[in-house]
Amino acid sequence: MADSQPRSKRTQLIRTLLVFFFIYGGVSYSLSLFEYTYFNLTGQALFGVSKTIDSISKEELINEFHRCGGPLFGANSVETEQLNDPIVVRCGRFWPFYRYSMIVPANGYIPGALIKYPDQPAEVTQAKEDFIQNTTVINGGYMLLSLIVFSLTLLAVFHFFVKKDEEKGYKWAFQAFASSLLMAITYVGVMFFVDPVFSLGW
Description:
This protein is α/β, with parallel strands linked by helices.
C-alpha cells in the first residue's frame, strides 16, 4: 500500500508533464503554421519585420542569405506587380526554424518571389496563375485546419485546468498534439510536391 501511493503520484506527475508537453506542441505547431500560411496568402508579416532595405545588390542579398543561414523566402501565393517593388521575405519557414522577416526589393534571386514581368510569355503567365491558385487553396485549407487544431488545445486546457478533468484533459491534449504533428508533416509533404523551391531550406 505504501509503495502504490508514491507510484500513483509519479504516474500523475508524468501524466501532468505529458499534458503540458502535448499542449505546448499543439499550440506551437498550429499557431506557427497559421502564421506561415497567413504570410503566404497575404505577403505580410503577422508579427512585423526586423528591418527594411530599399535597395539591394546581388552581393548584399547573398550576405543576407549568409546572415540568415539559408535563403530568404518570398510568399508563394502572391505575385508582385513589378521588379524592385518592396516585398516581405522571411528567414526560416515556420517553428522551430523561423527567425525573422524583413522587407527587400523584389528580385529574381529570392526563392518563391513571384514577379510579373512585362515581357513574360503567355504560357509563363498561365503557369504562375495555376501555381498561385494551387498554393492559395492549400494555404487556405491548412490555415483553417491550424485553427481547428488550436481549438483542440484550448479544449484540453479547459478540461485539464478549468474543469479539473485530468482524463479528458489528457485525451484532448494528446489528440491536439498528434493532429498538429500530422498537420505539419502533411503540409510539408504537399508543399514538397507543389512548390519547386520548398526543398531549398527551412
